[in-house]
Automatic annotation (TrEMBL):
One of its GO terms (biological process) is fructose 1,6-bisphosphate metabolic process. The lineage of its organism: Eukaryota, Metazoa, Chordata, Craniata, Vertebrata. The gene is PFKP. PANTHER family: ATP-DEPENDENT 6-PHOSPHOFRUCTOKINASE, PHOSPHOFRUCTOKINASE. InterPro entries: ATP_PFK, Phosphofructokinase_CS, Phosphofructokinase_dom, PKF_sf. Keywords: Allosteric enzyme, ATP-binding, Cytoplasm, Glycolysis, Kinase, Magnesium, Metal-binding, Nucleotide-binding, Transferase. Gene3D superfamilies: 3.40.50.450, Phosphofructokinase domain. It comes from Oreochromis niloticus. This is Phosphofructokinase, platelet. Pfam families: PFK. PROSITE patterns: PHOSPHOFRUCTOKINASE. Pathway: Carbohydrate degradation; glycolysis; D-glyceraldehyde 3-phosphate and glycerone phosphate from D-glucose: step 3/4. Its cofactor is Mg(2+). SUPFAM superfamilies: Phosphofructokinase.
Length: 716
């Protein structure tokens, strides 16, 4: 929430608005006084890394009454506040919409009581409202992710990873209870991310006799050599008769039926706390800016809207349409929220049911999430009836053949989801320098080698996020979290030091994604990248800008850079040290390969699992379509694809068509969506720059039906 508050304040000031904090939520708006204070640029410094909300939040019975809303309206009119940005759940947003609907009558009543004059009534005749959804449950319709969900998943996965080590040692079964009274998103996605053996969610009560089915499955898993079981229970889970399924009931059942040593862990409010993840900081920053733009464009006829995220695209949706869909979901148990795809993926990975031989391998540098993708591909492949093979050590293992080709079974990939690096092994070679290029070369080689006339699909996996044909790559989110966590610690190290600037070097080669998006999430003042050329005059302007900021209450600054053969990290460090003498001192940090290591983030685990499952289903479908005359023969360009995220959807794209989109010399796409975030980053760092609103969200309507699975080059 703090990242959203920061973005709203700074974007509001950038467009010339006067921005106010309303402390303690609706209660502060009703009480007025010191609860409503003007916000300055410096008011939101050092907020990004703080969990919770620094302006406070409180449940308010008074706002539910007409008298309370009348007081709130009076307090806003006194300060000429006519635009309200509300960050909260469906209850908070519903209250905001009611407040807007009553606004004219509230003003009339205040006028009649003599609390405001006619001029104030005219000046404040319209109230515009934009909402941002803050909810760890991800239980709001119309958005794929709500603010706080990814951070809550981080807390859950941290606990699960820690528990799995003790469970492995003592051969224990652990039952974990997570939040989710009406929505099982946290339970379901954490089950995907940790490879849980069983999950209970409110939306999908288990069939009668589930006790026997679960115990049988747990027993089978142990018989295959596993030393632990993980069961995840959403707090609102019930059976078909509406009886509550508690974590203690599940524990007693396992002990009684199987005799396994079983423990219960209830995570509780741990899930709400802690430092926000990189994803949440970026999501909230983008939503905050979008909310200000929506308020600026609002008119008397514009309905109150919610700023949402669909795929990688910001959209605006009518607030009450979203709220009504959420209410319908609660009443009907209608499974139309964003976890629908997660559920189908979990089913594929949990239950086994014309066989082909299918191989899986990793290429390029290791990226977090690769192992989750391999596990998913292997298990979905086995479920589809295939014989699965693992190719060790990438293309080196591919050409060495028999020694590095091994059949891989269901149990061989157990526990892989949370493992970092590449358990199959991967080595750099000329063929894998750009991942899409590797499949492209094999596609071209079909003319000379008929053996390559088989379906081929590549999943983007690189921390640099430089694969053409996709907005997001596996491993980038984990790397961003590593960068952000390190930047947080670096800034904290200077908490007792007056005015210090840090120069931080990230990885990425010629692609500035990590530097730019990491800088946005960490609150960097300046980011230098290859894609945006700069010269000595730009460096001088940056130093002067930072010097002016340091003369205020701002006492720390950060700059990031990733690629320039002349203006190196050492050069920039020395320049800032010299030019800032007497105002600030300077330190440099090269983050290095720590950006490539560590356990995968929940996003990368989930993303890898889902795209590998989709790719495997595409492989199966393409194999069947290509099977003629007793053999597989696939030589069309649609049979060699990259599966990537394009704005709102996952799309299979022929690699032959990506050739024109690629800068092969610098190994980057010619068009990169994240470059549009750079003006946003500069605005939030107090630079005077222009902001392109052509890509901002437009008001849409909520739809209930998701796009269906489809063939090549169409949305899934």
């Amino acid at each position: 929430m703090n990242a959203a508050v920061r973005a709203v304040v700074r974007m509001g000031i950038y467009v010339g608005a006067k921005v106010y904090f309303i402390h303690e939520g609706y209660q502060g708006m009703v009480d007025g006084g010191d609860n409503i204070k003007e916000a300055k640029w410096e008011s939101v410094s050092s907020m990004l890394q703080v969990g919770g909300t620094v302006i406070g939040s409180a449940r308010c019975k008074d706002f539910r009454t007409h008298e309370g809303r009348l007081k709130a309206a009076h307090n806003l009119v006194q300060r000429d506040i006519t635009n309200l940005c509300v960050i909260g759940g469906d209850g908070s947003l519903t209250g905001a919409n009611l407040f807007r609907e009553e606004w004219s009558s509230l003003l009339e009543e205040l006028l009649q009581q003599g609390l405001i004059d006619e001029e104030a009534t005219q000046r404040n005749s319209e109230l515009h409202i934009v909402g941002m959804v803050g909810s760890i449950d991800n239980d709001f319709c119309g958005t794929d992710m709500t603010i706080g969900t990814d951070s809550a998943l981080h807390r859950i996965i941290e606990v699960v990873d820690a528990i799995m080590t003790t469970a492995q040692s003592h051969q224990r079964t652990f039952v974990l209870e997570v939040m989710g009274r009406h929505c099982g998103y946290l339970a379901l996605v954490s089950a995907l991310a940790c490879g849980a053996d069983w999950v209970f969610i409110p939306e999908m009560p288990p069939e009668d006799g589930w006790e026997d089915n679960m115990c049988q499955k747990l027993s089978e898993i142990r018989s295959r050599g596993s030393r632990l079981n993980i069961i995840i229970v959403a707090e609102g889970a019930t059976d078909r008769q509406g009886q509550h399924i508690t974590s203690d009931f599940v524990k007693d059942l396992v002990v009684r039926r199987l005799g396994f040593d079983t423990r219960v862990t209830i995570l509780g409010h741990v899930q709400r706390g802690g430092t926000p993840s990189a994803f949440d900081r970026i999501l909230a920053s983008r939503m905050g800016v979008e909310a200000v733009l929506a308020l600026l464009e609002a008119s008397a006829n514009t309905p109150a809207c919610v700023v949402s995220l669909v795929g990688n695209q910001a959209v605006r949706l009518p607030l009450m349409e979203c709220v009504q869909m959420v209410s319908m979901f609660v009443l009907e148990t209608d499974m139309r929220l964003s976890f629908e795809n997660n559920l189908s993926t979990y089913r594929l990975l949990s239950f086994r049911k014309s066989s082909f031989n299918v191989a899986v391998m990793n290429v390029g540098a290791p990226a977090a999430g690769m192992n989750a993708a391999v596990r998913s591909a292997v298990r979905v492949g086995i479920t589809e009836g295939h014989k699965m093979f693992a190719v060790n050590d990438g293309f080196e293992g591919f050409y060495k053949g028999q020694v590095r080709f091994n059949e891989i079974k269901w149990g061989d990939v157990g526990g892989w989801t949370g493992q970092g690096g590449s358990l199959l092994g991967t080595k750099r070679c000329w063929l894998s320098l750009l991942q899409a290029y590797s499949i492209l070369q094999l596609y071209v080689a079909r003319a000379d080698y008929e053996e390559f006339c088989i379906p081929m699909c590549i999943l983007p996996a690189t921390i640099s996020n430089n694969v053409p044909g996709t907005d997001l790559s596996l491993g980038a989110d984990t790397s961003l979290n590593a960068i952000v966590e390190t930047c947080d610690r670096i800034k904290q190290s200077a908490s007792g030091t007056k005015r210090r600037v840090f120069i931080i070097e990230t990885m990425g080669g010629y692609c500035g994604y990590l530097a730019t998006v990491g800088g946005l999430a960490a609150g960097a003042d300046t980011v230098y990248i290859y894609e945006e050329p700069f010269d000595i005059r730009d460096l001088q302007a940056n130093v002067e800008h930072l010097t002016e900021k340091m003369k205020t209450s701002i006492q720390r600054g950060t700059g990031a850079q990733n690629c320039n053969e002349n203006f190196t990290t050492d050069f920039i460090y020395q320049l800032y040290s010299e030019e800032g003498r007497g105002v600030f001192d300077c330190r440099k940090n090269i983050l290095g390969h720590m950006q490539q290591g560590g356990a995968p983030s929940p996003f990368d685990r989930n993303f890898g699992t889902k795209i590998a499952a989709k790719a495997m289903q595409w492989i199966t479908r393409t194999l069947k379509e290509s099977y003629k005359g007793g053999r597989v023969f696939a030589n069309s360009e649609e049979t060699a694809c990259l599966l990537g995220m394009r704005r709102r959807t996952l799309v299979f794209q022929p690699v032959a068509q990506l050739r024109d989109e690629t800068d092969f010399v610098h190994r980057i796409p010619k068009e990169q969506w994240w470059l549009k975030l750079r003006p946003l980053m500069k605005i939030l760092a107090k630079y005077k720059t222009s902001y392109d609103v052509s890509d901002s969200g437009q008001l849409e309507h909520v739809t209930r039906v998701r796009p269906k699975d489809s063939n090549t080059s169409t949305a899934i």
